[in-house]
Amino acid sequence: MTTPVSVLRLPKGPDPNSRGFDPKSPRFIALCRTSIPTSAGSESDAEQLQEEQHARSVLRETFLRCLLSISNKKVQFRMHEKVKVDATFGASDIDVLNFQVSDLHTPIGVQKEALISTRGSPKPVFQTPESSDTIERIKYQKISCQNDVMLSMRLYVDGLLWRDAERG
Amino acid sequence: IANRLLPGWRTMAMRQTPLTCSGHTRPVVDLAFSGITPYGYFLISACKDGKPMLRQGDTGDWIGTFLGHKGAVWGATLNTDATKAATAAADFTAKVWDAVSGDEVLTLAHKHIVKTVTFTQDSNCLLTGGNDKLLRIYDLSNPEAAPQEIAGHSSAIKKALWCNNDKQILSASEDKTIRLWDRSSMEEVKTLTFDTSVSSMEYVADGEILVITYGKTIAFYNALSLDLIKLVEAPAPINSASLHPEKDFFVAGGEDFKLYKFDYSTKEELESYKGHFGPVHCVRFSPDGELYASGSEDGTLRLWQTAVGKTYGLWKCVLPEDLGAENSEQLYTAPEIKA
Fold it and tell me: Please, which residues 126-165 of chain A have a Cβ atom closer than 8 Å to chain B?
């Protein structure tokens, strides 16, 4: 008679709501490059940390407002092989992996509705500027303005040009 | 079935309990282990569902899914310290990933389906191969630069590996050859020709051994000279085989859904296991040799113990006098799988 080897439990399966890579895991905490100096440092000045947290939340809010402001506006995406496509921006998913767009003008025709993949990278990470007195140096650059109304902007994420957007 | 020698010289025959890792929804076509890191070792699986997954190597616990490919993923690999992953897919791209955060780091466009990817030991270069019949070497510190290309195969490349301290490249193709290339000169050094295309290839750096499978044969070659060391015949067509790090065993799996374990020196078949519900496409030993993982057409990965009954990972050795004892831990006994 043979006895099956006992197991403590079954291997854990995927989480249906997440792509995993738990940021609270010891490996993630130890190995993930963080570009945020204060949070990464072991001795964090409480005041500096608070300032940095405030700056980061300002940046996050700005980013979300940018996304809201370009909703239903004509935008241009830079794709692989330096292809540029125009579309009307709809919405982003929560991980910023896909953008829902309408009226997508591609080299081979117009797509009424489409999802554009952002390739998952760069993921919007908000860096704080070096010193607290340049807290206004947020991650978008006004290209042109008329009567203080922003006509077009470029959204930079991690120093990389991420988006051009224009008021149509 | 293994026999455990217990105090009093009683023996208890132990039956292998494979650990099933679910999550993929289509066939698993490739898998790879990392080296041993301070956080253990890791396992990546390539799947036709386009979503390669990272798992903890000794338990099979899911860690994350690499999202981004738009087609079946045919090849997947990890660098030695499991900080980077690379995948090859039917969407004509190879991708490099941060294996800690799961973020995509690089997309390398190709002209056809990419089948195989592998890092050099220092993780600075990536070798790819696929249906466009070219081997490509990318410098990951300068990914915008055009890759070096090696032409020669007359049909799709199925597998490409670095060998001889990353100074040479081995490639297996549908053209029924395995070719050895010199990396600096990019010239072909030697070719092995077979009657049929090779189903898998594994390189064992320590000892420079190449493990090749074709038909029902598992063949072992010297990776530097491509001289044949030995051939072993299995009971069924084999899709993949792996040599134990200590080189005392090798395992193989294929079209009859079973896993076979052989003695490397004597070539004797030692054990065989049912469990998968479809052909086995890939099998690999863990870096510590304590277990081997198999990927199947049935969409699952299974982990198998090398020494059946040993306490390791999620497997627990339970002595018969402990079974049923009031203070024994709650243990999970896997349900009987009736194939």
Answer: none
